[in-house]
Structure formats: structure tokens, C-alpha cells
Amino acid sequence: MAAEVAPEQLELVDRVAADLVETMHSFPRCVGLAAPQIGESVRMIVVDVSLHPKGDPNAEEILLVNPRVVSGRGSEVAREGCLSVPEFTADVRRCTEVVVEGLTRQGKGWTIEASGFEARALQHEIDHLDGLLFLDRVESLSRDVFRRKNYG
């Protein structure tokens, strides 16, 4: 479980934020990353679905400190992959709409209402902060997990 970031840790936030964004952009089709994936056990994520074929090209990069899903509705099973387990993808059930609260990198409160692919990406990255991988959410390991055919 990743630790909450305290208000006085602005220097840490800036360093981790820069690493998250740089690392995410270094992997083609990567739409999100959580701090634990880069070796930082703090509650920070970045999500940007604008360049992914399933994403909204008008979406903006979201960098959240201490994010949490406060509500969700709808349900959809869709394929997910992850840099933490690059050999596999899986069909995962997630809410189709979420409300997420957190802080900007400047420490201001931010509430995001997301749907579709962006909602899925936010839930996926917040799971990392709680020590969960997408494989922990599959209904059947034998039926819903697939060896990845390509990485691009």
C-alpha cells in the first residue's frame, strides 16, 4: 500500500511527477503509470489517454496526488495490459464512470468525473497504489488472461 503524500512534501511531488510523466511517455501506447511502478511507494498517478486509439484525443494529462475513487457506476469487461506484467493482457470488469478525488501537484483539491477508457485507466492506476494488479481483478485466470501478441 502506497503512503499518502503530506502537504510539506512538495519537493518529493515534483520529483516523482517528473519521473512518472517521463517514464509514461517513453513507452508507446502507455496511458498511465503509478508511483510504485517506478519504485516510489507514494500515492501518485499520471494518466493520459489522448494518444491511445481507444482514448479521447482531446483528453488532457491527469497527474494526481493521493487519488481515490469516491464513486463509480456502470460495469464493463474490457482488455487491459500493464507495464508491470508485460507478457499478459486480461479481460477485467471495471466501472464505466467514476468520480476521483485527489490533489494537483501544487496541493489543490481536484475532482475528476471520467467515463469510458479514461475511467478504466484511472481505476487501473489507483489499484497499483493499493497493491493490486489487473490480474487480481480477473474472474477466471484460465478464461480471461492472454499471452500478449505484440507490445506496440
Protein architecture, described:
There is one protein chain. This protein is an alpha+beta fold. The chain has one domain (about 10-140): Alpha-Beta Complex (Peptide Deformylase). The chain contains three helices and eight strands. The protein has helices spanning about 10-25, 115-130, 140-145; strands at about 30-35, 45, 60-75, 75-80, 90-95, 95-105, 110-115, 145. The chain has a five-stranded antiparallel sheet. It has a three-stranded antiparallel sheet with strand order 4-5-8. Strand 6 and strand 7 (about 110-115) form a beta hairpin.
Mean pLDDT: 95
Kindly report the name of the CATH homologous superfamily: Peptide deformylase
CATH C-level: Alpha Beta
Spatial shape: globular
- Architecture per CATH nomenclature, i.e. the level-2 architecture: Alpha-Beta Complex
Supply the number of structural domains. 1
Percent of residues in helices comes to: 10-25%
CATH topology: Peptide Deformylase
Structural class: alpha+beta
Distance between the termini: 30 Å
Order of helices and strands: HEEEEEEEHHE
Strand share of the residues?
A: 25-35%
Number of strands: 8
| Poorly predicted residue ranges | none
Structural Rg: 15 Å
Main β sheet profile? 5 strands, antiparallel
Count of DSSP H/I helices: 3
Please give the order of strands in the largest beta sheet.
1-2-3-6-7
